[in-house]
Design a protein that fits this description.
Blueprint (H helix, E strand, L loop, with lengths): L17 H11 L5 H4 L7 H5 L15 H18 L7 H14 L3 H15 L1 H8 L6 H11 L4 H8 L4 H5 L2 E2 L8 H4 L1 E2 L4 H5 L6 H4 L21 H17 L16 H12 L3
Antiparallel strand pairs: 1-2
Length: 275
């Protein structure tokens, strides 16, 4: 498959994107990330991104904790007033909608996927999330529920191993112990955020580097006469599934290497008119 050059759509216009600013302030104020901010000298771009340059300017005296929190709380309150109108980048919404239609994502799963993409793409948002420390599974649910303003039960279902995000590999919990939020929300590949924020023409471009189109089959159904009885059941089952547009249907093909498993899959795909 030919490599596609993505024209990346910036998440920031005239400074920090409003939705990312809101998420950062929710991490810092309701979730208490501000307590670690004064101790993290490598995170000085966090207050700068929020317009708090006077906190880290060399000639200025750092604000005292109470005054600093009051200033953050004021910024947070202002951001919440606008929150109902804030959206993620349009191109990201379109690309996530494409994958959502393919996989059957819920509104909560869509929101989590959009957040995960921006978390991996925006270094300031990631640094802000690091201020929350190492998170457990329950902690991850609490953070996402607060940051995205979603019911905790819905977020827990979206992150469950049996959920569509995990089963599809779009967002997988990459940590089995306490870890940072970014590690908790692992994505398909390092290139996936860039692809999701770029202008792709089809699903295969979004999945580039992870999923590729299989070559056409070199054999035909007549070459698999030894499994004719199985194919009498399997072929109509797959056709009915495809016509009905059902999701999550799997067929397990097993056997020693070189016996034709992959080729049979290609032959069946051609037979039912699918990729």
């Amino acid at each position: 498959m030919a490599r596609t050059k993505f024209r990346r759509v910036s998440t920031v216009a005239n400074g920090l994107a409003p939705i990312i600013r809101l998420w950062m302030l929710r991490m810092l104020v309701p979730l208490g990330g501000h307590r670690s901010l004064s101790l993290a000298w490598d995170k000085e771009d966090v207050p700068r991104a929020l317009g708090l340059d006077h906190w880290v300017d060399g000639e200025a005296e750092p604000p005292k904790p109470k005054a600093a929190f009051a200033e953050l709380a004021r910024l947070h309150q202002q951001a919440e007033i606008q929150s109902a109108r804030l959206r993620t980048p349009p191109q990201l919404q379109r690309n996530v909608a494409r994958l959502g239609d393919l996989v059957g994502l819920s509104r909560t799963e869509t929101s989590v996927l959009e957040f995960a993409v921006l978390l991996h793409d925006d270094s300031v948002l990631a640094k802000t999330s690091d201020l929350l420390g190492e998170l457990s599974s329950n902690g991850t649910v609490e953070v996402l529920a607060t940051v995205l303003a979603l019911p905790g039960q819905d977020v827990r279902g979206a992150l469950a191993p049996s959920g569509k995000l995990s089963r599809s590999g779009l967002v997988a919990n990459g940590a089995y112990t306490e870890s940072s939020l970014k590690n908790r929300l692992g994505l398909l590949s390092h290139a996936f955020p860039q692809q999701m924020l770029g202008e792709a023409t089809d699903i295969m471009e979004l999945m580039q580097g992870t999923v590729s189109v299989a070559p056409p089959p070199q054999l035909a159904l007549d070459d698999f006469l030894h499994v004719t009885d199985l194919l009498k059941t399997l072929r109509p089952y797959l056709k009915q599934t495809l016509n009905a547009g059902r999701h999550g249907v799997n067929v397990f093909v097993h056997g020693p290497p070189g016996t034709g498993k992959s080729e049979l899959a290609r032959v069946l795909a051609k037979d039912i008119g699918s990729e």
